[in-house]
Design goal:
Layout lengths: L1 H5 L11 H12 L8 E5 L21 H9 L9 H9 L2 E5 L13 H19 L3 E4 L2 H12 L21 H16 L19
Parallel strand pairs: 1-2, 1-3
Length: about 210
């Protein structure tokens, strides 16, 4: 976690998210299960003021990710979030961001560079968490994260062989249906095939 907090690559892009980033991580890692059975990887924390985040205790009307993840697991979204997040943890689930600085809104034009800046950090974080399974959320993120994890040998842990939409802008039902299907596969111990044309070379994260 220290490496994530200390990273300042995005300062050159005019993004100073260091304080909020550290707060987000402290909130999140309170709920890290001892064994991560399923690691959920989403794009980035939202750009918002006051700060909004999946693991922040206060529930806001814009917390669609938190609400829809909980609903997809038949967990009632609690407010404050502690009860629901503890149930999420008890299932062995943990959620992280591919990019630790916000990509949405005014930073969207910098998405490619921010994802690139965070790629080695994401690899190190996944290695340290040692997840049994991985779910990648958001269609525009899927290929970048797949390739990133493929380089460190975690592509075989990814259980969605195609993108899952982010649960916003009318995509909530499609999101829930996709998660319910994956949950059924997990219960039946059936792993989806990895994406086609997915060749990659394993490397050690820098």
């Amino acid at each position: 976690m220290k490496r994530i907090v200390d990273c300042n690559k995005c300062l050159a892009l005019g993004i100073n998210y260091s304080t909020t980033k550290e707060e987000n991580l402290l909130f999140a890692y309170q709920y890290k299960p001892e064994i991560v059975k399923v690691l959920w990887i989403v794009e980035s924390p939202p750009y918002s003021n006051p700060p909004r985040y999946f693991y922040r205790p206060e529930l806001t009307k814009h917390d669609s990710l938190y609400k829809e993840v909980m609903k997809s697991l038949d967990i009632i979204p609690s407010s404050p979030k502690a009860d629901s997040l503890n149930k999420f943890k008890q299932l062995g689930y943990f959620l992280i961001d591919a990019a630790k600085c916000p990509i949405d809104k005014k930073n969207s034009r910098l998405k490619t560079q921010i994802i690139k800046n965070c790629s080695s950090i994401l690899q190190q974080e996944v290695i340290s968490l040692e997840p049994e399974k991985i779910i990648i959320i958001k269609a525009t993120l899927y290929n970048d994260v797949y390739k990133c994890l493929c380089e460190i040998g975690f592509d075989k842990n990814i259980i969605n062989s195609k993108p899952i939409p982010f649960p916003g802008s009318g995509q909530q039902r499609r999101f829930r249906n996709a998660i319910e299907e994956l949950n059924l596969r997990l219960k039946n111990r059936v792993n989806p095939a990895n994406p086609k044309n997915s060749s990659c070379k394993k490397t050690s994260p820098r």
